[in-house]
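Handout for the seminar on molecular recognition.
Each group receives one record of this type.
Step one: identify the two inputs.
Step two: read the structure output and locate the region that could contact zinc ion.
Step three: write two sentences on what you found, then compare them with the reference statements printed after the record.
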Amino acid sequence: MQATFAENNVEPLRLAIQKSGRLKEGSSELIRECGIHFQNRGNNSLKVSASNFPLELLYLRDDDIPGCVADKAADIGIVGLNVVEEKQKQIRVVEKLGFAKCRLSIALPKASSRKSIEDLNGLHLATTYPNLLRKFLDENNVRGATIHEISGSVEIAPSIGLAEGICDLVSSGSTLIANRLKEVAVVLESEAVLIAHEDLSDEKVKILEKLLFRIRAVRNALDRKYILLNTRNEDIDKISEILPGLESPTIIPLREEGWSALHSVVYEDKFWEVIDKLKDAGAEGILVVSIDKLID
Ligand code: PRT
Ligand code: ZN
């Protein structure tokens, strides 16, 4: 039988992730994509060990993750940047993870004549993010605004007369629209981040580096595509210039005289722009393939 990491005396890195909620799926998916497997956990288990990597998962409420890492009950954690910045704990953000993207914004009733940061003076604002909001108001010289801290359903505060405006997370914006609110200022752009405490042992730093290597390979693959195309040899230079690959494209001669195949990697956000230019430059038989992992 294969020895586990615990049996080999490797102390596992402890990773805190959200037990249930918007971060859970993205966090679990990322770990799975890194090739790390766990024994099936019962529904109530709060801790589980990986069978093929020195990693232990702790399942927590997202609000408890920064504190848990700062107190070293966990070594690292996956949590929204909004929660990290609000909690102001002694931890370091190691890596942005690119999922659970949202923004913390100040919103006012649609009917209000106020429409920018300059109009926020003297307002009463409801939020679950009092620290971030206070900092933003101070940095923008907003005077006389007061903060009403509530624990949820922030978006209904103006309609029930609890506050004149709100500061809350927005992703699609449909909650604001449904509550007849308009966004007037962005306090923070947020996404899921990997955090760590400042006191990891050398052994745990090495495990973290291995984990980060895998995370970056997974993320690199997500925002890039592998592209293959055929071109006349005289167009190779023109087409190579259009391809913003990792390095120069691979060129393979085709059986048909005077033609070659070009292979390269393109960024997903530039994808359609690049394809249009390639077609105009004479590329044919363009094939685009998803990448599973990409090691830079
Ligand atoms: O139970 P636990 O405390 O662990 O979870 P939670 O209920 O506090 O948090 P959860 O699971 O709702 O969100 C976890 C994290 O997901 C947040 O801290 C953000 O980093 C991130 N995230 C991304 C969001 C959103 N998008 C989001 N849209 N968190 C909340 N929302 C809410 C927002 O508060 C508002 O009510 O969705 C509504 C707005 O969404 P739109 O799409 O209508 O704009
Ligand atoms: Zn929470």
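Reference statements: Residues 224-290 form a domain with the Alpha-Beta Plaits fold (CATH 3.30.70.120). The pocket of zinc ion (ligand 2) is lined by residues 61-63 (CB under 6 Å).
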